[in-house]
């Protein structure tokens, strides 16, 4: 063999005796075949066969299977982000003339997608109050093909009655999809409570290190899975095996990270709750938070992501107060090793129920830093706000 050729052709080496506890990164666009006959029949081997990198490698399939097993579903499909997983599922399962009902508390980019792209395709999105099942029942009509659930809701954390909503949807022949990013399958399994498919942003707890974007779509029924998979192929959507290996690594510590986050969140909440400048803590695991009873009924745990509503007096000072934080970083997303705060406006992304409280809700995500450092940060924040809002000038009216 000429040396130029030798440089190109991969030699066969023995794998005998080799094993690894992690998952190797299998990259490929081309999958070579032994002969022309096998090549010609490559697409007849169903979803499990390897035919082209876009349709999966052992690395992507391993990640898919791990997630499928956690949910007890039939198949998981991967998308380049959580948002992509949601948008692609809706695009593949809805058509011109269909209606979809979406909670008012949905992840805001999904509202934008529905109002822009679904609307352009003649798919009609309407919004419902996440915790009002009767009002939702009254909205279902013959065009309703899908009810979307996100529980707890983005930023304001309302827990939804999944099984009641799924019953309503199924009586009328509509599908139920659920964004389960906050709980992950460790703490809630939507497919066991009536959902037909579930989405998680793997960007958050699964990846867990704020350095990879990915989404998963786990489906209960094989016919729907095959339909969406074929659609993803036609649209040319796939994910990188290198990114999958990051998510696979993150997933190994997910249970510990989430457990820790909830415990430390509880400690930070104790410092905030009842303070004169704090109006409400929004956290499903906290008695009094919207949907706490449903959370107790359906969930097996809570993540370390919660929101704080400050009083009218304190709210204008919360943005500047974030400047005193030493350990929390300021930024979007959550579920990483670094604790994050994000000041979130809510009013502009609600269309069913007006948001009547201060229009800055502080969302916190607890990471893996020392918990005393995090608690000190919360104390610094509170001290700053107290200095801006002395009791005489408006704390106590
Ligand atoms: C972050 C997030 C998404 C989107 O995930 P990306 O991977 O960032 O696109 C969807 N839903 C919820 C609830 C999220 O928090």
Structural notes for this entry:
The termini are far apart. This protein has 14 helices and 12 strands. The strands form 2 sheets. Strands 1-7-6-5-4-2-3 form a 7-stranded mixed β-sheet, with helices on both faces. The protein has a 5-stranded mixed β-sheet with strand order 8-9-12-11-10, with helices on one face. α4 (82-93) packs parallel to α5 (108-120). It has 2 domains: 25-42 and 49-251, Type I PLP-dependent aspartate aminotransferase-like (Major domain) (Aspartate Aminotransferase, domain 2); 254-388, Aspartate Aminotransferase, domain 1. It has 397 residues and is an alpha/beta fold. The protein has helices at residues 3-8, 36-40, 58-71, 82-93, 108-120, 133-139, 162-171, 184-187, 222-235, 241-252, 254-272, 292-298, 315-321, 371-388, and strands at 75-79, 99-103, 124-128, 144-150, 175-179, 197-201, 215-219, 278-282, 305-310, 329-330, 340-344, 361-365.
